[in-house]
């Protein structure tokens, strides 16, 4: 069984799901081998419901975009320029189709962590791939600091069972951290660049 963050794909079984977030109706193509194919996962939903979209502008990076719910939701609700990255070709193909069916103009491209990222962002938003392990997870979250503008914000969601408490403490060494919301074991965290 391949993980959603690898490029070793299981057999494709693409379908469309309907999602409503904050009264916004969206459609998404989903597929085997891409995270949360049965519907929008609770963590991502909690993250999107707790971001104040009125504050989001400038450049936004959806890190590990999967089939695209974060970046597409942000583009639909804000004037921001949205870039979306993932390492999975299947996820990127779905995200491109989903941007099209949801009528948003976003920039979607492949990147292994920040390998192909060449600018700085006002916001980096992610439901990070926990299954990659702590070493890579921390690389994703702490290297984000190098790609944030001054006072830029890293927004993420993590479950308490995946180490939310210790991660929050560790993030405080680099960022000004606020736990925006705790929702059924999920922590919505805003980590602001100092």
Q: Could you explain the architecture of this structure?
A:
- The protein has 194 residues and is α/β, with parallel strands linked by helices.
- The chain has one domain (40-193): 3-Layer(aba) Sandwich (Rossmann fold), CATH 3.40.50.
- 25% of the residues lie in helices and 33% in strands.
- The chain has a 7-stranded mixed sheet, sandwiched between helices. The protein has a two-stranded antiparallel ribbon with strand order 1-2.
- α2 links the parallel β3 and β4 (81-86).
- The longest helix has 13 residues, at 89-101.
- The protein is globular, with a radius of gyration of 15 Å.
- The termini are far apart.
- The mean pLDDT is 91.
Q: Which descriptors apply to this entry?
A:
194 residues, alpha/beta, Rossmann fold, 7-stranded mixed β-sheet, two-stranded antiparallel ribbon, 9 strands, 25% helix, 33% strand
């Amino acid at each position: 069984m391949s993980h959603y963050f690898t490029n070793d794909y299981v057999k494709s079984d693409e379908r469309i799901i309907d999602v409503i977030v904050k009264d916004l109706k969206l459609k998404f193509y989903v597929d085997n081998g891409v995270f949360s194919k049965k519907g929008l996962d609770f963590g991502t939903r909690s993250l999107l419901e707790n971001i104040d979209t009125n504050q989001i502008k400038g450049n936004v990076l959806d890190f590990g975009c999967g089939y695209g719910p974060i970046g597409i939701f942000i583009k639909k609700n804000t004037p921001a320029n949205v870039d979306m990255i993932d390492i999975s070709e299947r996820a990127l193909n779905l995200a491109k189709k989903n941007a099209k069916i949801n009528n948003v103009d976003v920039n979607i491209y492949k990147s292994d962590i920040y390998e192909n990222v060449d600018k700085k962002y006002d916001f980096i938003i992610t439901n990070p791939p926990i299954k990659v392990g702590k070493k890579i997870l921390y690389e994703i979250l702490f290297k984000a600091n190098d790609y944030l503008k001054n006072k830029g914000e890293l927004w993420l969601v993590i479950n308490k069972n995946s180490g939310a408490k210790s991660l929050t403490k560790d993030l405080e060494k680099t960022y000004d951290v606020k736990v925006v919301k705790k929702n059924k074991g999920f922590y919505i965290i805003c980590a602001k660049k100092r």
